[in-house]
Amino acid sequence: MSSSHETDDPHLLGEVLAVHPDGQIDYPLATPCESMMWKARPRTTFAALVGANVKAGGGGGGPSTAPKLGDYGLTLGNPSVTPFVPLCTSKQAPRQTTAWDAAAWFVSLTPDTMAMGNGIDTVLVLSRLTASTPITPSFSCKGALPPTEATICKSQALAGRDRAVAQAYQRVTALAQKRKLNNLAAMEAEQRQWLKTRDACHADEQCIIDQMRERITALMSQ
Predict the structure, then answer these.
(1) Residue 19: what are its φ and ψ, rounded to 5°?
(2) Is residue 2 part of a domain?
(3) What is d(CA 156, CA 135) in angstroms, rounded to the nearest whole number?
(4) Staple 71 to which of 5, 46, 103, 203, CB 3.0 to 4.6 Å?
(5) Model confidence over 20-38: pLDDT tens digits?
(6) Predicted confidence band at 1 (pLDDT cuts at 50, 70, 90)?
(7) In this structure, are residues 176 and 183 in contact, taking their beta carbons and an 8 Å threshold?
(8) Which pTM value belongs to this model?
(9) Cα(74)–Cα(77) distance, rounded to whole angstroms?
(10) Are 78 and 47 in contact (CB under 8 A)?
(11) How many domains does the chain have?
(12) Could you report the per-residue pLDDT of 160-192, keeping only the tens digit for each?
């Protein structure tokens, strides 16, 4: 991983993206379209496609650096791919299109794996979810559970956000240890207090996911 790129960003880790048979995309981090069409781009290699993502220089518009597969920790090989670009349309003007999410593209890498790029600096690896895919939050779903944990154990989306919270918490505590800060006890107390706030949601899925997204943002800002 280079210093300009980050793998397993908790802001994105575990989010669920759904592509419906009519082409519509459900993704909580992007604005939905009234209707959608998909446009194929010329065939290329996965490395060339990722390399076209422009990573802007920090601060004041410095020079950009073309990323490589290794910058994102990608170990999926370098297959030949056909990128597909989702475009928003409307019933009133079906021939007029706008970008769905920046310059987003999708490619199929294996029958169960896709990659999505935003054309700027992000590449997401998407794994197919089926009815038989295990739901795996950061804690065990065995035994009697309180209502909030039981609700998380029934939802891929909630389990994914739970893993992201755990990842963010592990990052900030590891960073505190690396910097030899004396605030680990306070961080642990803060996490325990947040868990009480999350558990006050009981079985309210929207409340739970809102609490987890807020917690990720708070942790990643430390």
Answers:
(1) -110, 120
(2) no
(3) 6
(4) 5
(5) 888 888 888 787 888 888 9
(6) very low
(7) yes
(8) 0.79
(9) 8
(10) yes
(11) 2
(12) 999 999 999 999 999 888 888 888 889 999 999
Q: Round to whole Å and give the CA distance between 214 and 30.
A: 17
Q: Going by DSSP bridges, is the β-strand pair 84-89/80-81 parallel, antiparallel, or unpaired? A: unpaired
112 with 33, same domain: the answer is yes
Based on the fold, state whether residues 159 and 204 are members of the same structural domain.
yes
Label each residue of the chain as H, E or C: CCCCCCCCCCCCCCCCCEECCCCCEECCCCCCCCEEEEEECCCEEHHHHHHCCCECCCCCCCCCECCCHHHHCCCCCCCEECCEEEEEECCCCCCCCEECCCCCEEEEEECCEEEEECCCCCEEEEECCCCCCCCCCCCCCCCCCCHHHHHHCCCHHHHHHHHHHHHHHHHHHHHHHHCCCCCHHHHHHHHHHHHHHHHCCCCCHHHHHHHHHHHHHHHHCC
On whether both 151 and 63 belong to a single domain, the answer is: no
Torsion of CA 118, 210, 134, 111, to 10 degrees: -20
Count the alpha carbons within 13 Å of 70 in the hemisphere toward its beta carbon.
Answer: 3
- Which residue range forms the structural domain that includes residue 202? 147-220
Two tokens, residue 212: 């987890």
Name, in order, each residue with C-beta under 8 angstroms of 101's C-beta and a sequence gap of 6 or more: 27, 30, 31, 86, 118
The answer to the question of residue 11 being in a domain is no
Residue reference for tokens 């410095």: 62
Q: Does 151 lie in the same domain as 123?
A: no
Average pLDDT over residues 151-159: 96
